[in-house]
Design brief:
binds 2-acetamido-2-deoxy-beta-D-glucopyranose; eight-stranded antiparallel beta sheet; 32 strands; 623 residues; 3 domains; TIM Barrel; signal; alpha+beta; eight-stranded parallel beta sheet; single chain; disordered N terminus; Immunoglobulin-like
Length: 623
């Protein structure tokens, strides 16, 4: 083995870092002994300890590297550059003007826990056990629930990797090779029309994952500049979708609202899918909503709150030229959940975005809604490979999601979106993508917790959990699932119902009373939620962090994916297993008071068989 000290190397001490850190941060590069073997091994060090290791340049013979200056190398027509990033990081750039070039740098996942990564259909936590197939592009897509997927991997040793926006990125994790996450750059569909291939990323090293994540939020990810409207935080949102699906009209919406009010609940009503003349028309259907003005005024009197309404961005048949995303053949036909005859508005075209916004704005006065549920926005609703002429070509295809979210931002803090891309700054809720009415890791109740953690650790801290009890997909929820879901959701930022508890019968308990208890718990903690949001705006802290946030060196806490925090002092451990009336609770360091009975525990401690009958949510408050 030989350790080379050439450009890629940057090497300990040779990059100008803060004097005080100069001895603590660095990396070593080792070329393979065999002259014909490709790639090199890189070890990143912090305080003399290895915190990250990688096999870089997997497609290149780095023995042939010609490094005239310390951090600038040429390998054939590939250029490698390494620069310092702040006091404790490096930006590594592989670049080639030969667009057939592929780059591949793989990081070893073993020996640490990992956080960040994409929203998934099967959402496990921490991240290191997930499998990602590198043949699929790492872009914002509906497929596999990738609606929030920043290019961010954080490990428990305090290192993070953030991949540049312009990289035509594919990620292969635990797939081609177990224990590795490989960042691959190649100019293939949907990354069209490129003039170079780029693999550029920043590695930052810190003493622990909390310091590292805050560094990431404040330097690369971004953080919110405001929080959602308090109405949406404090009181439930009642949506027509899961209960009624498309079977809605004036009478049903009013009846739904009256039912809610008569049972003693308040909040806002959301009219979901199928109120429009046609999808994307944004005008109420006459046959279903002949009296929409009266319906809206009825809602505003009855529940004294707002009406949000859903807006789909996919149109069935409107032929405005140039407003729809086309592919390289000029075809604009897109496929979505309703039909194979749709067109995706090109929000990167300011005129097309305005054409959309004008109709949305009109709804604010006629019939007078207050806010919107902005659905979809993922890039795979547009026909591939999509052409976007008004943008930096290296931002294709995620530019679609970003420009959509920027368009929605005009409508303020009383809205929700469900896709995101580099849009952490906005003061509105990002909703988890639709959940199924099941218990498990397969988009069920368990993933309410793991998706909450994933979104927070992508820098999206204003998270709107999806509908309580799921959407009725795959099956209808039963009363037990509905109630466990309600409890699990109670200390998350907002509660969104569609299924109504009084529609569920139980011989054993009164579902309505139990739901009332958890809605009250949520209301009691609304000030804490808002405080956590203000802290997020100020400092970049997650609103709902994983529990290791309390002690980022706690090896047990680092592995836990079925508990979460609200702010920094409230730990929540929901029951998410069918027929269970107890669960194991882990409390990290600190003195914790049981929110249900005032018992005090000194952490770290594992509480086996914590009793949690159907009306109990285990939660603990740190002194
Ligand atoms: C890259 O180098 C190869 C040969 O090493 C050459 O065939 C190719 O034309 C070069 N590409 C560019 C864009 O310079
Ligand atoms: C990852 O690192 C571990 C040691 O921590 C080592 O045993 C393993 O072989 C490495 N994996 C790969 C794929 O290089
Ligand atoms: C609803 O009210 C708006 C103005 O407030 C009016 O322009 C519109 O015609 C009314 N719609 C119906 C169906 O009466
Ligand atoms: C446009 O794309 C759609 C969906 O892929 C396809 O069905 C249709 O045949 C295409 N139209 C033309 C003219 O190529
Ligand atoms: C490729 O990008 C250029 C600008 O860099 C643009 O003018 C052209 O329309 C794009 N072509 C396609 C097919 O997207
Ligand atoms: C549940 O309690 C409410 C009072 O809050 C009562 O009106 C209702 O009848 C009860 N339901 C059942 C099924 O007992
Ligand atoms: C839960 O209990 C019900 C009723 O006893 C039973 O049908 C179901 O299979 C149980 N589910 C699990 C996961 O044990």
């Amino acid at each position: 083995m030989k350790v080379i000290f050439l450009g890629i190397t940057a090497l300990l001490g040779s990059i100008k870092v803060n004097a005080h850190l100069a001895d603590e941060v660095g990396f070593d590069v080792t070329l393979p002994d065999d002259e014909n073997e490709l790639g090199a091994k890189v070890t990143f060090l912090f305080n003399q300890g290895e915190v990250l290791s990688a096999n870089v340049g997997a497609t290149l013979n780095l023995h042939e590297a010609d490094c005239e200056e310390e951090y600038n190398c040429q390998i054939g027509n590939v250029t490698l550059t390494t620069t310092a990033f702040g006091d404790n990081g490096y930006t590594i750039t592989w670049e080639s003007l030969d667009v057939t070039q592929t780059f591949k740098d793989c990081f070893n996942l073993t020996g640490a826990n990992w956080f960040g990564g994409p929203q998934r259909y099967t959402q496990t936590w921490p991240l290191e056990a997930q499998i990602l197939d590198g043949s699929s592009p790492y872009v914002i897509k509906k497929s596999d629930n990738f609606a929030v997927a920043e290019r961010y991997w954080l490990n428990s040793k305090g290192a993070y990797i953030f991949i540049d926006d312009k990289v035509p990125l594919f990620v292969d994790q635990n797939n081609e090779e177990q224990g590795l996450v490989c960042f691959i750059a190649k100019a293939e569909n949907p990354y069209i029309n490129r003039t170079r291939v780029l693999l550029q990323y920043t590695v930052v090293l810190n003493e622990n994952p909390k310091v590292a994540h805050l560094h990431a939020v404040n330097n690369v990810l971004g953080k919110p500049k405001g929080h959602p409207n308090e109405g949406m935080i404090r009181e439930p949102i009642w949506t027509t979708w899961a209960k009624f699906k498309r079977d809605i009209n004036d009478e049903i919406v009013l009846g739904f609202a009256n039912d809610i009010v008569n049972n003693g609940f308040t909040g806002q009503v959301e009219i979901d899918e199928d109120w429009e003349v046609c999808f994307g028309a944004h005008v109420f259907k006459e046959d279903k909503f002949a009296n929409i003005n009266e319906t809206v005024s009825g809602l505003l009197c009855g529940s004294t709150h707002l009406l949000t309404t859903t807006v789909r961005i996919t149109l069935r048949t409107d032929l405005k030229k140039g407003y729809f995303v086309k592919n390289v053949n000029g075809n604009t036909t897109a496929i979505w959940w309703e039909s194979e005859d749709a067109h995706q508005i090109d929000f990167t075209n300011p005129e097309a975005a305005e054409w959309f916004s004008t109709r949305i704005r009109a709804l604010l006065t006629n019939p007078g809604v207050d806010g919107f549920k902005f659905d979809a926005g993922e890039t795979d609703y547009a026909i591939p490979p999509s052409v976007y002429e008004n943008v930096d070509q290296e931002e294709i295809p995620n530019c679609l999601t970003k420009s959509y979210i920027e368009t929605c931002a005009e409508f303020g803090d009383l809205i929700e979106v469900r896709s995101a891309w580099r849009t952490q700054e906005y003061p509105f809720f990002v909703r988890m993508i639709d959940k199924d009415s099941v218990w498990g890791e397969d988009d069920g109740l368990y993933t309410l917790i793991t998706t909450l953690l994933q979104m927070n650790m992508n820098g999206y801290t204003m998270v709107l959990p999806d509908m309580i009890g799921g959407n009725g997909y795959r099956q209808q929820p039963n009363v037990e699932l509905l109630l466990r879901w309600t409890a699990a959701n109670a200390l998350m930022p907002a509660m969104q119902f569609s299924y109504l508890p009084w529609d569920f019968e139980s011989d054993e308990y009164n579902a309505t009373e139990i739901v009332r208890k958890f809605v009250k718990l949520h209301e009691d903690y609304a000030d804490e939620i808002i405080k956590a949001m203000e802290n997020s705006i100020e400092n970049g802290t997650p609103v709902n962090p994983p529990i290791w946030w309390v002690d980022p060196t706690d090896q047990t806490a680092l592995r836990i994916g079925d508990e979460f925090l609200l702010g920094e002092n409230i730990l929540v451990a929901p029951v998410y297993i069918e027929n269970s009336t107890e669960r194991t609770v882990y409390l990290p360091a600190g003195t914790w008071t049981d929110g249900n009975n005032g018992v005090t525990y000194n952490g770290p401690i594992t509480i086996l068989d914590y009793p949690a009958p159907i009306d109990v949510l285990p939660y603990f408050i740190k002194q």
